[in-house]
Amino acid sequence: MSSQPKSLVDLPPDTKGPHTSRLGIIAVVATFGGLLFGYDTGVVNGALEPLTHDFGLTPRTEGLVVSFLTIGAAFGAVIGGRLSDAFGRRSNILLLACFFIVGTLACALSPNWQFLTGARFVLGLAVGAASTTVPVYLAELAPFEKRGSLVTRNEVMIVVGQFAAFVINAVIFNIWGEHEGVWRYMLSVAVLPAIALLIGMLFLPESPRWLISKQREEQALGVLKQVRSDERAEAEMREVEILAEQEEVAKTGGVTDLASKWVLRLVLIGVGLGVAQQLTGINSVMYYGTQLLTDAGFSAESAIIANTFNGLFSVLGVTVGIMLINKLPRRFMLLGGFTLTSSFHLLIGLSAVFLPEGTFKAYAILVFIVLFVFSMQGTLGPLVWLMLAEIFPLKIRSFAMGICVFALWLANAAVAQFFPSVVSGLGISNTFFLFAGLGVLALIFIYCFVPETKDKTLEDLEAEFRTKYGE
Amino acid sequence: MSILVAVTDRAEGAAALTAAIAEAKLFDTDLVIVPLGISATFDTSALDESGIDYTVVARKGRGDRDPAEAVLDELDDRSDIDRLVIGMRRRSRVGKMLIGSVSQRLLLDSPVPVLAVKG
C-alpha cells in the first residue's frame, strides 16, 4: 500500500487522448472493488439482529455465521494470489465478481443457518481474493502519476463500503423492519456493486506487467497503447519490465529461509503486528456494532441508526490516517494508536459498569466506541498494512506477507467468532477490559520488538536485524 | 571443467566460497556461484581479488524457491560442471524435521562429486 510518486525510468507525460476514458473506467473498478469488500464485510452488522430472530441463533452460531466469511477470506487471499499469478489479474477479478454475485444470492436465499455459513465462506473466498488482486491490478495498470492515489482510493472505498452498508441497512430496517426476512433484503443489496464490477472489468484489459512476466511482450505493449498515448506506451514498457523483474525476485524466498534466525524473527514480528491489529477488536465493532449498541441501551431502531456513526468515523479516521502516515515516525504512530484504543476500551468498560442504565449511558458508550473506531482507523488500521509491506527484504516479501496476511485474517475470524460468546458470558464491560489488557500487551510487544521503518532503506533494516538476532 | 559453489548468507557459506576459490585456483578453472541467501546483492570482493573467472547465477522467482532444487537445476543446465562445493552446519533435530536439510539433499542428489566444508 505504498505510493510511487516517481517512475523508475524517464517517462514522457501522459497526454490526453482516446485512452483517457479507458483510464477513467479503471478508477470505477478501483471504486467498486473496494466498495464490495467493505459492503460485504459490513452488511452483516445490521442484518444480524433480525437474522438471529429468524434462524434462532445462539451466540455460538452467530459467531460461526459471521466468522466464516473471514475464514473464507483467509484462504481466498492465498488462493486468489496464486490464481492471479497463473491466469492473469483480469480473469481473476472477473471470476471473483461472479463469486460475489453467486455468494450474495446464496446468502440472501439461505433456508437455514448452516447453508448461510457455507454461503458466507464462498463469499469470503471472493472477499479475500479481491483484497489482494484488486490493489495489485490497479497498481500495475495505472500510470505512476496516478498509482498512489488509485490505491489510496481503493483503501478509502473499503471503509466507505462498510459505511454504505450501515446506512442502507438502517434505512431498510426502519422501513421494512416488521418483516421476518428483512435481513435477506439487506444482504441482497450487495449484488448491485458486484454486477457493476463484473461489467466494468469486461471493458478493461489485462495487466501489462503480468503479460510481460509471462513473456507476452507484444500483448503488453498493445495494452499499454490502449491506456496511454503511443509515445508514452513505448517508453513505459521498460519500466514495466523492471517492475515485473522485481516481482519475480520477490517470490524467490520460501520456507528454507526461515532457518535464518533474523528472518524467522522478522516474520514473527510481522505476524504479531497483524494479530495485534485485529485483537484491538475493531472488527467486533464493524460486525457486531448494532448489537453492541442495543446491549448498551439503545432500542433496535435507534441502535442501527447510531451504528452508522461507526461507519462515518471509520471513513474520517482512514482519511486522517492517510494524511498522517507519511508525516509521523511509525513506532510513534503505533504506540500512540494502541494507547488511544486501549484508553477508549477502558472507558467503554468503565461506562458499562459504573453509569446508571439509561440514555446517558447508551450515548456515552456510543461516543467512546466511535472515538475508538476513529483513533484505530486513523493510526493502526492503515499503518500495519504499510509496515508489513516495508519490513521484509525483497526476496522473501511475497512469502512473508502471505504468512502475515493469512494470520491476520485468522485473527480477524477468531475475534468475529468468539466475540458474541464472550460478551454474553462476561458482559460488555469485562470484554472491553479484556481488549484493553490485550492492548497493553501489544504496546509492550511493539516497544520491544517492532523496528522503525520510516526513512530507512531495506539494507539498513536487514543489517539491523542480522546483528540483533543473529544468523 | 568448472566448479559450482552454493553460498548461503552464513558462516559456512563464506567458508564454502573460500574453499571453492582455492579449488578453482588449484585446478585452474572458472567458478559458478549460486547465492542462496536473501540479500539483494552478492559481495564479490573476495572473488575479484582472487583473479579467477566467475559467474554469479541469481535465484529468481517461485521456481527457484527451493534452494536444493535451484542448485540441482543449475547443475543439470551446465554440463561442464564437475564439482559442487557446499557449506555444512549442524542443525537441530526439530529444525531438520521442519525445514529439512538442503546440504543433505545436495550431498545425496548431486550428479557430481561434492566438497562439503564446515563453517
Description:
- The complex is a heterodimer of chains A (471) and B (119).
- Chain A has 2 domains: 17-204, Growth Hormone, Chain: A (Up-down Bundle); 253-471, Growth Hormone, Chain: A (Up-down Bundle).
- Helix content of chain A is 82%, strand content 0%.
- Chain A has helices at 19-55, 59-87, 89-108, 113-141, 144-176, 182-188, 191-202, 208-213, 217-227, 230-250, 261-278, 282-296, 300-306, 308-324, 330-354, 359-378, 380-391, 394-449, 458-469.
- In chain A, helix 2 (59-87) runs antiparallel to helix 3.
- The longest helix of chain A is centred in the last third of the chain and has 56 residues, at 394-449.
- Chain A is globular.
- Chain A starts with 18 loop residues before the first helix and ends with a helix.
- The model of chain A has no long low-confidence stretch (mean pLDDT 89).
- Chain B is α/β, with parallel strands linked by helices.
- Chain B has one domain (2-118): HUPs (Rossmann fold).
- Helix content of chain B is 41%, strand content 24%.
- Chain B is built from 5 helices and 5 strands; from the N terminus they run E-H-E-H-E-H-E-H-H-E.
- At the A-B interface, helix 10, helix 18 and helix 19 of A face loops of B.
Keywords:
heterodimer, A: 471 residues, mainly alpha, Growth Hormone, Chain: A, 2 domains, 19 helices, 82% helix, B: 119 residues, alpha/beta, Rossmann fold, 5-stranded parallel β-sheet, 5 helices, globular
Write the layout of secondary structure elements.
The complex is a heterodimer of chains A (471) and B (119).
Chain A (H helix, E strand, L loop, with lengths): L18 H37 L3 H29 L1 H20 L4 H29 L2 H33 L5 H7 L2 H12 L5 H6 L3 H11 L2 H21 L10 H18 L3 H15 L3 H7 L1 H17 L5 H25 L4 H20 L1 H12 L2 H56 L8 H12 L2
Helix pairs in contact in A: 1-2, 1-4, 1-5, 1-6, 1-7, 1-12, 2-3, 2-4, 2-18, 3-4, 3-6, 3-7, 4-5, 5-6, 5-14, 9-10, 10-18, 11-17, 11-18, 11-19, 12-13, 12-16, 12-18, 14-16, 15-16, 15-17, 15-18
Chain B lengths: L1 E6 L3 H17 L2 E6 L9 H6 L3 E3 L10 H11 L3 E8 L4 H7 L2 H8 L4 E5 L1
Parallel strand pairs in B: 1-2, 1-4, 2-3, 4-5
Helix pairs in contact in B: 3-5
